[in-house]
Amino acid sequence: MSSGRHGSDLLIRNARAFAGTSAGSEISVLVRDGKIERIAPEIEAESVSGDVPRIDAGGRTVISGLVDVHVHFRDPGLAHKEGWERGSAGALHGGVTSVVEVQNNPPLSVSLEALNERIEHVRARSRVDFGCLANLLPRSLDELASMAPYTPAFKLFLGGSTGMGGLEDRPTLRMLFAKAAEAGRMVVAHCEDEALLRAGKNAHPEATALQHHLVRSAEAEVRSIEQAIELCEETGAALHVFHISTAEGVERVRRARRLGLSVSSSTAPHYLLLSCEDAGRLGNLMKVNPSIKTPRDAEGVLAGLADGTVEAIGTDHAPHPLEEKTRDYKHAPSGMPSVDLLWPLTFELVRRGLLDPDTALVSVTSRAAESLGLVGKGRLQAGFDGDLVLFDPKRTRRVVGMDLPSRSRWSAYEGMELSGFPELVVRRGEVVFRDGVTTCAAGGIPLTLMAELPGRSKDLLEDPGRPGGSGGVSAG
Ligand SMILES: [Zn+2]
Questions:
Q1: Residue 185 half-sphere exposure, CB side, CA atoms within 13 Å?
Q2: Which of 2, 27, 220, 384 is the most exposed place for a label (fewest CB within 10 A)?
Q3: Which pLDDT band holds residue 263 (cuts at 50, 70, 90)?
Q4: Crossing angle, helix 295-307 and helix 247-258, to 10 degrees?
Q5: Would 468 be classed as within a structural domain?
């Protein structure tokens, strides 16, 4: 689909390499036709042929544009909740230049025709490059092979969430996994066990936001991950567990990887920076699925990121208007926005000493791209796309939900003092965001996917030039 990758020329001088909260060594980056051509301590403008636009970074830190592996922009279908124009503007605000989008409201991507219609719809509106996950459902089975070349993976709901019921019939699930493997794409799963979700609901009939982590329990996630791993073993499918929220769930993924299974996972900022102890303060604003668990679970997920069991941090950006979130617990929809804050929130993990700088960075850049088989994204390296973010690691700002681009206009992180707010964002050599203002209309293109199916490219994973060491390499 996106063979005609294109872009602009740009020379950025006087930037600093990423070194956590301090300033790294001086670097310049030259982008030609949208791709990084050269990175060096200093590139003299005179040494660059042609009339290449220049930017003096003024000592700001430069990193690769972020890859958010999990967003919901609800468009087409529920564009009043976000839409691609606002959603992708939010992405740029958070330093995100590529998103993988999960459609969980009709029209679902259950046929090649529906998927291609969605891709064309998004291409006309998105300011960031994008991948559209196809839905893995009994009614999409016949179309999986034809959809595979156009989607990073197939999205499966093992547990029901906003707008989607979960699947639990084992023979059906086995067939879905087997057919996904046959089509050569991994299964990306929302893992919560439907029977345990029902049990949680019945056990807490008068639940409020304070009991959300008991209604949608840790056991529900762990049991579902176990089942998904069993299905991988039985069918040979590759599995990526989205938004992992429990220490035990991470341990199950770790064990599966040790056994050589092709199992990977990602988490979200709210499972790392918040815990169920914040429910009194935040109420339904932190009602998300899976639920936000205990501080011990957050520690377990952070350990998973550190050793590479959890490869990526994606936001699961799931916007709803405040008037819907402030209904009583039972009627408030699940989900929170945060694509607008992905880099500041990730950088906060570094500032708090919860993650080392390299792990934090690769979790939203190179490792995130690789976890879903996206090519040419997420590395500050010659040959990769010229997606860049400039920020000042010393500058802080308080989060004001009303000022964020997302249509929801509220944030669970309201008032939090964060650093890492992008000041300049470049998409394939073009300046698309500067000092809080989006400077492009649309222009995003479909992400290039690994031609080789299934799962992830060994070459990519074994690249010695990859930042952050070998953590996250799957044996599968
Ligand atoms: Zn989601």
A1: 29
A2: 2
A3: very high
A4: 30
A5: no
The average confidence (pLDDT) of the chain is 92
Exactly one of 68, 129, 193, 316 is catalytic; which is it? 316
Find out whether 88 and 339 touch, Cβ atoms under 8 Å: no
Radius of gyration of the chain (CA): 21
Cα 57 to averaged position of ligand 1 atoms, centre (Å): 35
pLDDT tens figures, 372-387: 999 999 999 999 999 9
Is 0.85 topped by the overall pTM? Answer: yes
> N- to C-terminal Cα distance for the chain?
27
Residue 4 has pLDDT above 60, yes or no: no
Distance 46 CA to ligand 1 centre (A): 48
Is the pLDDT reported for residue 463 higher than 50?
no
Q: Residue 368: give its domain's CATH number.
A: 3.20.20.140
Compute, in angstroms, the gap from residue 70 CA to the centroid of ligand 1: 6
- Residue 457: pLDDT over 70: no
Q: Which residues contact 277 (CB under 8 A, 6 or more apart)?
A: 294, 295
- What is the distance in A from the centroid of ligand 1 to the CA of 41? 40
> Which pair of tokens denotes residue 424?
């300049």
**73 C-alpha to ligand 1 centroid (Å):** 10
**Rounded distance from Cα 336 to ligand 1 centre (Å):** 10
Whether 195 maps to a domain, the answer reads yes
Determine the pLDDT at residue 2.
Answer: 33
Query: Residue 293, SS3?
Result: coil
Q: Mark out the alpha helices in 310-372 (DSSP H runs).
A: 322-325, 342-351, 357-364, 366-371
- What does the pLDDT look like over 356-370, one tens digit per residue? 999 999 999 999 999
d(CA 407, CA 90): 9
Assigned domain for 343 exists: yes
Altogether, the residues listed in the chain come to a count of 476
Shortest CA distance to 449 belongs to which of 108, 153, 123, 116? 153
Asked if pLDDT for residue 464 goes beyond 60, the answer is: no
Q: How far apart are CA 252 and CA 367, in angstroms?
A: 20
Mean pLDDT of 130-154: 95
Instruction: Please check whether residue 257 lies inside any domain of the structure.
Output: yes
Q: Has 56 been annotated as catalytic? A: no
Encoded tokens for 249: 């769930």
Residue linked to tokens 């087409």:
76
Q: Is the pLDDT of residue 459 over 70?
A: no
Q: Give the total number of structural domains in the chain.
A: 1
Distance between CA atoms of residues 266 and 253, nearest Å: 11
